[in-house]
Amino acid sequence: xxxxxxxxxxxxxxxxxxxxxxxxxxxxxxxxxxxxxxxxxxxxxxxxxxxxxxxxxxxxxxxxxxxxxxxxxxxxxxxxxxxxxxxxxxxxxxxxxxxxxxxxxxxxxxxxxxxxxxxxxxxxxxxxxxxxxxxxxxxxxxxxxxxxxxxxxxxxxxxxxxxxxxxxxxxxxxxxxxxxxxxxxxxxxxxxxxxxxxxxxxxxxxxxxxxxxxxxxxxxxxxxxxxxxxxxxxxxxxxxxxxxxxxxxxxxxxxxxxxxxxxxxxxxxxxxxxxxxxxxxxxxxxxxxxxxxxxxxxxxxxxxxxxxxxxxxxxxxxxxxxxxxxxxxxxxxx
Length: 334
Ligand code: CP
Description:
- The protein is 34% helix and 13% strand.
- By secondary structure, it is α/β, with parallel strands linked by helices.
């Protein structure tokens, strides 16, 4: 998609308003902006009901029987794509995983023509990941009224289901957001995970949010209102209840000028057992994945009891089941 194509459709309503149908129901999930604390809590509560204990059968329903979900990932993914696939199947939907590399987009078909083609095959929900900002909203403005678009990762802008699964994981371990100090450490500048976490945590009334990075990887303060932007890891970790490590998003960085090399990065920003001694007792360690062990996180810490990284992955399926259920609830009547 080129920029001209993106701006062909005038943005008459904002992305946040676009998410809701006329009667206030969630239709698309494009961003966490505009969702109230009550709406987020309901999604987290719904997701809890889709969990089952380890070793037990996965929770299944037929809530999406007769519906079709298409996964369109124009950027690589393991967790998000697999969990949307499993979530949709566990809800009884038909699932189409479009192989983008062998699709007709390689022959020059526009993203909208790809959508219109799949929409004509009665796809009801499109799960979209793209490296260009604005793509999920652009598609949402152009699909039929009954169709839902779920943002599965939009450039460095937004990753709303990741934000929700991170909130769910934090709430399971630390139920009162108002009491929490959360430190997110790494390449904040290029991180859609950090931006969605910041929006979600602010809505939930987090006590303090610290964003810690080298100067070259710091966010624009206007992007993250209310967060403290720090550059010294020790300042970020001191008494933090939640520590989230992020990888350096080299695929989004034009010039590596000012970006520390691997050894220097781990020495200054790597989260280790030793450094976690600065954090609060019982602090949890998170990482959205994919993880670069030994660069942003000490490998043995990632596998330690302090780490909730695999819980984040488990919660990812439950959150995606909750979102798929929420956006299809209105379909029977639309
Ligand atoms: N956290 C996340 O989005 O992981 P994937 O890129 O593997 O989907």
